[in-house]
Amino acid sequence: MKRVLLLAAMCLGFSAPVLADLALATSKNCMACHNVERKVLGPAFKDIAAKYKGDAGAADMLANKIRKGGAGVWGPVPMPANTQVSEAEAKKLATWILVTPQ
Ligand code: HEC
Predict the structure, then answer these.
(1) CB 78, CB 23: distance < 8 Å
(2) How far is the centre of ligand 1, averaged over its atoms, from the C-alpha of 12 (Å)?
(3) Which of 9, 12, 22, 68 is the most core-located residue (most Cβ within 10 A)?
(4) CATH class entry, domain 2-98
(5) Which residues belong to any copy of the Cytochrome c domain (predicted)?
């Protein structure tokens, strides 16, 4: 399964560090509710990147939300807290999501 995901990511033309972060997001269960390209239960990562484009504080704000959960920004469905994610991992994931190509 991981292999298939990695292959799919490569086909999309992602570079190696981006792949590493996709693997992190997959291992932290983010991809159960999110997809890079399209909305699943949560918003597409490319839509999140578009929404916060040019917002210098977005990475810290989103890292905090990733760990504590959030609601009311994208629709009626809340994101539960992701307590399995460390502060450093949350910052890495937020930074990665914000550079998703649109
Ligand atoms: C149970 C499903 C679920 C899981 C698991 C999940 N999310 Fe979410 N996520 C959501 C939903 C639903 C929203 C929209 C919440 C809202 O409208 O404020 C969201 C919103 C977000 C946002 C945007 C927040 C904002 O305020 O704009 C980011 C960034 C995000 N998720 C990242 C992650 C990351 C990284 C992980 C893995 C650690 C993760 N999510 C795991 C469902 C999930």
Answers:
(1) no
(2) 22
(3) 22
(4) mainly alpha
(5) 16-101
Query: 5 CA distance to ligand 1 centroid (A)?
Result: 20
Which of 44, 53, 83 minimizes the C-alpha distance to 67?
A: 83
Structure pTM? 0.88
> What's the gap in Å between 18 CA and the centre of ligand 1?
19
**Cβ 69 vs Cβ 79: under 8 Å:** yes
Pocket lining: 82 vs ligand 1, CB cutoff 6 Å: yes
Ligand 1 pocket check for 8: Cβ under 6 Å? no
pLDDT in tens, 26-57: 999 999 999 999 999 999 999 999 999 999 99
CA distances from residue 55 to 39, 61, 81, 98, 99 in whole angstroms, order as listed: 22, 10, 23, 10, 12
State the first-to-last Cα distance of the chain, in angstroms, to the nearest integer: 26
